[in-house]
Amino acid sequence: MGVKLNSGPTIEINGLKFTYPGINGHPPPGSKPLIEDFNLTLNAGDRCLLVGSNGAGKTTILKILGGKHMVEPHMVRVLGRSAFHDTALTGSGDLSYLGGEWRRDVAFAGFDVPIQMDVSADKLINGVSGVDPQRRAELIKVLDIDLSWRLHKVSDGQRRRVQICMGLLKPYKVLLLDEITVDLDVLARADLLKFLKKECEERGATIIYATHIFDGLEDWPSHIAYVANGKLQLALPMDRVKEMYKLSLMRTVESWLRKERDEERKRRNERKAKGLPEFEQQNEGSSGDVRAVNNGWAAGRLNSTIAGEENFVFSSNRVLRQ
Ligand SMILES: Nc1ncnc2c1ncn2[C@@H]1O[C@H](COP(=O)(O)OP(=O)(O)OP(=O)(O)O)[C@@H](O)[C@H]1O
């Protein structure tokens, strides 16, 4: 549930629209946006799971939030600022993004160090200045890191632990995680998730976590956001999801993705029957409709094919049926 440390939302996505630029740096003429009509509001303490099928747009959304792609400043506000235009947000460590290119490198003293190079965990982790020694020690313990590890000689999972430790050293206010736990063993993943939850509950951090791995996540998120074809299909507090679906998290998400896939197949067959190309031009056409309301809450009309024609407003701790 949201911790009332900050006044106002920590993350606000308002009518986000985004198209990847073509080779000339501009969106190809006539192309449909990859992300469209996307609205989401999160508060301090919220832990939002971002789910969706491969290619749904999760990484793109996280990268936009992380200031890696330019969008109009009003479309994405992190801690009340535009992540792309206000570089101090990431520079200060208030906003941290772990994913994408980060998977190949470790940010170290202003440089990106390839994670396979011959350098010790000690040098990397203790080489970052301005870090609270207690926080550093806690992270080393949580991730069970041996400081004598040399990055080029350890396993993928051990390297990943060092990398995650580096990414969490500064006490971020907003953390964007793009599936970072794939290499971790069950224990390391469970301990990390517990640490991240504590960060939200005690410090009021806000986390968005995009993942396909639901093991051990049952009681982790406070909210879940489901994206399909670049559109937000559903955004709800977890309590509400459990109440509505009465299934495990994995089975719930599975049911959404199955419906989405079946509908997509049906659409393709209909197109074929009409003599149209089976696959639509990328991001052409979409379904779902979500809008923001003025008081900073997000309102979502669930895609009728997913959960029936119902309207919900969610804040960090309650759902109102409209
Ligand atoms: N740099 C790029 N240029 C053009 N299109 C891109 C680029 N990166 C991603 N895309 C396209 O954007 C769509 C969404 O990709 P994205 O990586 O955001 O999906 P995702 O939901 O994170 O998928 P996954 O679960 O597989 O990681 C895909 O169709 C992909 O092909």
TrEMBL record:
Entries under InterPro entries matching the protein: AAA+_ATPase, ABC_transporter-like_ATP-bd, P-loop_NTPase
Keywords associated with the record: ATP-binding, Nucleotide-binding
Coiled coil: none
Domain ABC transporter intervals: 11-254
Region span, Disordered: 260-291
Record flagged with keyword ATP-binding: yes
Origin: domain of life: Eukaryota
SMART domains hit by this protein: AAA
Keyword Nucleotide-binding: yes
GO molecular function, a single term: ATP hydrolysis activity
Biased composition range(s): Basic and acidic residues: 260-277
PANTHER family, per database record: ABC TRANSPORTER FAMILY PROTEIN, SKFA PEPTIDE EXPORT ATP-BINDING PROTEIN SKFE
UniProt name for this protein: PREDICTED: ABC transporter
Source organism of the structure: Prunus dulcis
